[in-house]
Write a structure and sequence with these properties.
This protein has 16 helices and no strands. By secondary structure, the chain is mainly α. The chain has one domain: MFS general substrate transporter like domains (Growth Hormone, Chain: A).
Length: 426
């Protein structure tokens, strides 16, 4: 690869398109588990506790969180491609495990592998797109990444719902999953190119090098609490995952109990994921045009309202509407939280900084699943919806107070003037 390295989506379109295909496959992989697995736990494996059913999301969340953290760090040492390929290799046994699982703990093991796959493959795909796009189109690149990823989640949930309704909960939906994983692995090995040189070229062009080579611990600290904006982004990212955990665990259980079929639940979950997915094509670009902060703050409150409204209505069509509203909120906040962190981090440690943010964000699956499962077991499944809505409103309030605008044009000056605003001075 001796050609001149120039960032830009159009210049790097073939590779950018392949990275979109990769993240679509990552979405399909997780979507395939979105709809069928909680019902499988309750109806086939006889699990009664929502916390135990939620345990597969807990294992997934914490494992993915850890691999987000280290995946970013490793990709700066070894490159993006090897980490991507490793992510797909780890996914190979997942369908086999779910098809033959004699009890719920097997499925939790399968989900540990899913967490590794998502942590490595999705992290690398988003880092590669940010590398290729350059700073001008970063919001749009992340919006595209998340749109294709969550479009994949929506389609995966819908397809497996249809297959489960037609052929039963096992094994048919997971044959589909196996096909996706094999294709993605082949594409990653044979067609994807390394994008680390783009990040290195961008780092060389940054004028302010005081922030360039920070040790891992310093980045971890800064991206967690050392910087107010990054703290606001990390806590918002963590709490918005409560919503996704709720959709994953509680929606299928709550809605099937309320009288919907597994196929109908697949449509409701698919509408949430689909609206979230498609709208990110627009909301990522929106943040390039009006700034990052307004969509993030609006999204926290809109998603909270959507969750709250879900337990206030009692009708299939109205559930489609509340799922859509929740999806709108997620589309507004989700890609733009990543972009805030991408803006605020120096290119030389951006993948690591994003890894720290994504660690806290995906740990929200674990925290959320524990909160949702405990609330559902002690009070009711319905109460879990109220708790998650309240958490979103509170977290949105923190973002209003502490998150500053990071867009180079709309913020208070460039990328590096933010370090003075420490929450807790050393």
């Amino acid at each position: 690869m001796h050609h001149v390295i120039q960032a830009g989506i159009r210049r790097n379109l073939p590779q950018f398109a392949l990275q979109l295909l990769t993240v679509f496959a990552v979405g399909l992989t997780i979507g395939a588990e979105r709809n069928v697995v909680p019902v499988l736990g309750r109806d086939v494996l006889g699990i009664e506790s929502v916390l135990v059913i939620g345990s597969f999301v807990v294992s997934f969340g914490f494992v993915k969180a850890l691999l987000n953290l280290y995946g970013g760090k490793w990709s700066e040492a070894y490159g993006r491609k090897p980490i991507l390929v490793a992510g797909w290799l780890v996914a190979l046994p997942i369908p086999v495990i779910i098809v033959y699982a004699p009890n719920w703990w097997w499925i939790s093991v399968g989900n540990v592998l899913l967490g590794v796959n998502q942590g490595l493959a999705w992290s690398m795909s988003v880092n590669a797109k940010i590398d290729l796009a350059g700073s001008d189109a970063r919001g749009f690149a992340v919006g595209l990444d998340e749109a294709f990823g969550y479009g994949g989640v929506a389609i995966g949930a819908w397809v497996t719902g249809v297959l489960a309704a037609q052929y039963g909960l096992r094994p048919a939906p997971f044959y589909f999953l196996a096909g996706v994983i094999v294709v993605a692995l082949v594409v990653s090995v044979l067609l994807i190119e390394e994008t680390l040189p783009y990040a290195r070229a961008e780092a060389e062009n940054e004028s302010d090098d005081a922030d360039a080579d920070l040790p891992f611990r310093t980045i971890l600290k800064r991206a967690t609490w050392g910087d107010r904006t990054l703290f606001a982004a990390s806590q918002a990212g963590s709490v918005e995952k409560f919503v996704d955990a709720l959709v994953w665990i509680a929606y299928p259980l709550y809605l099937t109990t309320a009288g919907l079929s597994v196929a109908e639940v697949g449509v409701v979950v698919g509408v949430y994921g689909g609206v979230w997915g498609v709208l990110q094509l627009y909301t990522g670009k929106l943040a390039d045009d009006i700034g990052r902060r307004p969509p993030v703050v609006a999204g926290m409150f809109v998603a909270g309202v959507g969750v709250f409204a879900t337990v206030l209505v009692d009708n299939y069509w109205l559930w489609l509407v509340t799922a859509g509203v929740t999806g709108v909120g997620m589309a507004l906040l989700y890609p733009n939280l990543i972009t805030v962190v991408g803006d605020a981090a120096h290119p030389s440690w951006r993948a690591t900084g994003l890894g720290v943010y994504r660690m806290w964000r995906d740990a929200g699956y674990g925290f959320g699943a524990i909160l949702i499962g405990t609330t559902a077991d002690l009070v009711s499944t319905e109460a879990a919806f109220y708790v998650v809505a309240a958490a979103m409103f509170l977290s949105g309030g923190i973002a209003v107070v502490w998150m500053r605008e990071t867009h180079p044009e709309f913020g208070a000056g460039g990328n590096m003037e933010i370090q003075a605003s420490s929450l807790f001075d050393d």
